[in-house]
UniProtKB/TrEMBL annotation, chains A, B:
Chain residue ranges for the region called Disordered: 1-32
CC annotations in GO: membrane
Species, as recorded: Buddleja alternifolia
UniProt name for this protein: STAS domain-containing protein
Residue intervals passing through the bilayer: 155-176, 182-204, 216-243, 263-279, 291-317, 337-360, 420-441, 447-465, 477-505, 540-560
Polar residues bias (residue ranges): 1-16
NCBIfam families: sulP
Main location: membrane
Residue ranges of domain STAS in the record: 533-656
One function term, GO molecular function aspect: secondary active sulfate transmembrane transporter activity
Amino acid sequence: MHINSNKVENFASPATKSAWHEEGTSTMTNATPMPPLEVHKVCLPPHRTTVQKFRHRLSEIFFPDDPLHKFKHQTPFRKFVLGLQFFFPVFQWGPNYSLKLLKSDVISGLTIASLAIPQGISYAKLANLPPIVGLYSSFVPPLIYSVLGSSRHLAVGPVSIASLVMGTMLSGTVSYNEEPILYLKLAFTATFFAGVLQASLGFLRLGFVIDFLSKATLVGFMAGAAVIVSLQQLKGLLGIVHFTGKMQLIPVLSSVFKHKDEWSWQTILMGLCFLALLLTTRQISMRKPKLFWISAAAPLTSVILSTILVTCLKSKLHGVQVIGKLPKGLNPPSVNMLYFSGTHLALAIKTGIITGILSLTEGIAVGRTFAALRNYQVDGNKEMVAIGLMNMAGSCSSCYVTTGSFSRSAVNYNAGAQTVVSNIILASTVLITLLFLMPLFHYTPNFILAAIIITAVIGLIDYNSAYKLFKVDKLDFLACLCSFLGVLFLSVPLGLAIAVGISVFKILLHVTRPNTVVLGNIPGTQIYQNLNRYKDAVRIPSFLILAVEAPIYFANSLYLQERVMRWIREEEEWLASNNKSDMKCVILDMTAVSAIDTSGIDTIVELKKMLEKQSVKFVLANPVGSVMEKLNHSNVLESFGFEGLYLTVGEAVADISSAWKAQP
Amino acid sequence: MHINSNKVENFASPATKSAWHEEGTSTMTNATPMPPLEVHKVCLPPHRTTVQKFRHRLSEIFFPDDPLHKFKHQTPFRKFVLGLQFFFPVFQWGPNYSLKLLKSDVISGLTIASLAIPQGISYAKLANLPPIVGLYSSFVPPLIYSVLGSSRHLAVGPVSIASLVMGTMLSGTVSYNEEPILYLKLAFTATFFAGVLQASLGFLRLGFVIDFLSKATLVGFMAGAAVIVSLQQLKGLLGIVHFTGKMQLIPVLSSVFKHKDEWSWQTILMGLCFLALLLTTRQISMRKPKLFWISAAAPLTSVILSTILVTCLKSKLHGVQVIGKLPKGLNPPSVNMLYFSGTHLALAIKTGIITGILSLTEGIAVGRTFAALRNYQVDGNKEMVAIGLMNMAGSCSSCYVTTGSFSRSAVNYNAGAQTVVSNIILASTVLITLLFLMPLFHYTPNFILAAIIITAVIGLIDYNSAYKLFKVDKLDFLACLCSFLGVLFLSVPLGLAIAVGISVFKILLHVTRPNTVVLGNIPGTQIYQNLNRYKDAVRIPSFLILAVEAPIYFANSLYLQERVMRWIREEEEWLASNNKSDMKCVILDMTAVSAIDTSGIDTIVELKKMLEKQSVKFVLANPVGSVMEKLNHSNVLESFGFEGLYLTVGEAVADISSAWKAQP
């Protein structure tokens, strides 16, 4: 049965305020006069076929931002140009590029290069890869991104988290020192799979899966990773030679203290001095954002200073470890090193998936942050394709996983970058370094790399966010804490899995145990609000008005049934103990019931039956469109009929009261 | 900052209808006069400490039905009596028990006994256990349940689904024919663990976990199981000796046709005749519920008839398999057969968990169904404890998993059972059978057991429900179909896991991609409704009113941000192409936003920032209590201030319009 006839006609004489308001409003003061009340019918949504609904659902899942909206109503040529711009954003900003923009981009490009070169070398060491791979990875990926990427401020290159995770996951099985070729092969293969995963997530428009890494999870995860990375740098800072490849807190700390005899006081002294210098410059730049260039220039300056120092004193400093000889020249091709069969393939895929997801999350978040600051849009799915293709290309040219780095992008933004051309400048600077300057790094000491890494990752520990989580949402804080402790004591994948599990559990818990509240009328208005929250709201005698604040699903339908019956029982007990008149009608406000399934419909039917047995009327107010549709399809509307559905609580109260008046 | 001051004071002259309604309501016809509009402030919920909130949350999770409410305000003696009644429902109905009730219970007890004895023997065979175990299981558990259980109509004993699952899971590893003692040990141990799980779920008040087996899942699962069970009975009906122990469709069917030479025409002929008889009686009872006793008496009658037939013709019927010799006497103790260490312990625990959950689901559902018919309450958690203790006791007295059976409970209800005494009568009848009548079953043929099982399980195939699912909710139907096919082609645990996965995925999908709708005003009222659904609703010029129909979580916050921006973009495009005045204010109706987390708060802040950059005002309407609390704790309320929060959309529109009027 479809309800189509006009409901208004069923109530020839609409109830007026005076007709129903007298009954029990002795407590209502300062009520302004109410207008005569009309009863509006509850509409079904416009009819759509299953195919139409399915298409709508799919388009909401995969194309919520309607990415092709620009193509509507355009000429074929314009569509072609727009398509070109869609796939290669370079065509969008390219035609308007000017010398003024170039000047800004050159300055910012050179600035991030001075940061990217020492960081690239350091992060490669974090991934247990040869330092030169870090520079290779700062050359090809920025070039690819500058053609495909749509963020104007993203500075592309290796990042700490992905480097760390790759290093620990691969080192758990293969040691770089023992099998360097296999290790390199696995690293490039993992990078390839990371790229494939990223590009396909973007291409299939499944980008929303990374949303399941909530901010709470990431705050905890990043802090845990930063602590581990910093502790691992004690290797370089203390000059320890034999160090664990593991990542958990306990093996790292025991490794530090087991090898006390390897501590080198010269390394420690110089390392601490440079660390103090770097941390001070970081503090200065944080206090005064205009002085961003101080912290941006500090790493390269420290590398130069420490290299000169070590070169001059090399005859006297035997304990100090240095990078050593680095090969000159451009990225060698590495297609032949991809590893598609063999015992370690599963490890490479697993590493690729986890580093891929993590680096994607960082890259997208960074891109969105700076896009929001400058008020332009970054299409998440397109960015994923760009980052994915960049990693696939990287894996074929001796690069490991890269993405947009938060610290370097911030410097890029502060230095005034206008377009992705700053990435081209970065790549050109790295190119010159690779071709001509590599011998200069021979005596660069390892401790300075450790100091640079610590300075970079210390910013990942975000106490403020953690404190805010604690203050605002205890369960979010729990997810944060679990991912922090999980990363620290278990492992990266396990810590992440636990945190995602808690986040999903939180959603399910909210669905399983939704809020139900009793509503009262705010005198003189048609507003019905939570009695517990609005002290001026008053109960309407003979009515119990309940609001359910969640969809009604199989997971909560029995709970809601029990809970509603408890509200009714408690109301009846209260009425009996206060000698009030009986409850004669229960109104269920469905405004916040955003969906219902078959179990939920059964609950509604069951409640109606149970209340009818107790001679209590049961009506629904304001069911949303999808709920109305399901009630209609399941023929429940028939049992409610016209008299059991109202558009607002106020109309329900007025209409039912007037019906009672009419038949005394 | 906490908002406590009175908002009303901020607007000295409340906007009147005439002041704001003129602006753009030329399309509004038949509008009744509106009253002067007051602006109400949005309240924070009453302050509660974290501990109070935590306690409230826990009590909602574990004690939603407030089970101790009867104990409030009672004398200590009364509390003791209530406590006794709480733990042993027998004290509740015992004192009022009368001869009249006893008469009804004796009749219904004898009726279900006539059904329980042949079914007990059949189901034990389904679990690959000796037939006598089925009778043992119809003796001890009903006695225990009659003391602890609170359902008046539940008929306790072995059931088809749990028997089938136990049989297939154990037979996958251990064969009863080869290692009968080990198989029995595992069956009793699994029963013990099932009982422990059931009792602890009830005791820890975690009963809601079984809610995750939604009705859709169960419809599919039961149908799949019924198909498999029926096909497996071809063994008995065709007289096949060598049959697979597996449960999937393909091995069962291939087993039937591989052993064509073992088919026995005498067995087939007699089996089909009795099956036709049983199915006919079933049809008669379904058509006329008053004739329920026809189908209730049919199994025992068929057993007696077929046994007489086979006994008389035994010299001529060589191919017909019979039950054989059954031991006389009561349940032997089996505590010494529980198996707590050894290679198969994991199998026993796994079997216990799955059969425990399944039998619990059936028992609770059956109890609730009949309680609803007679309008009494069954406390799910207490029932779980009763069923759990009954299985633990059963495992120590040679019983396997038992629960409330749907078919026998229905007969019990129809036969007029008034209390659990009918279970005592059932047990007494089984006792007499065990002591004196066992030799009579010697020549009972296997085909009659197969026919009884088929007749029983065929009722589990519920096309009507499946069709209703298809009509009302396609995703629910998908879950149903997956659990059906999963059980048929994969395995019971996998089929169930897939179906639960789909159900949870459905919840997450709804949260990830919630509905957003544009609201318009129904002329002459303060009602704002979906423009797409209510054709008489009209847009308010200069306003865009959006409603979000879901909690805002990390999983949907980015989607919502993009989606809201798209609504705004589309609105602006529409306004520009129709030469309408600019959009100046976006109102977000938060009525249906039942919760928010830190990511959601960031989205609200982000939207506000983005809209402010476009000089568009952004206000919230009617945030619910928990959302207000979080907005307050995260200091977002400060940025909205008094002018960014309204109790209703109507007040927001009126107030903002009048403010624009005031500053032209």
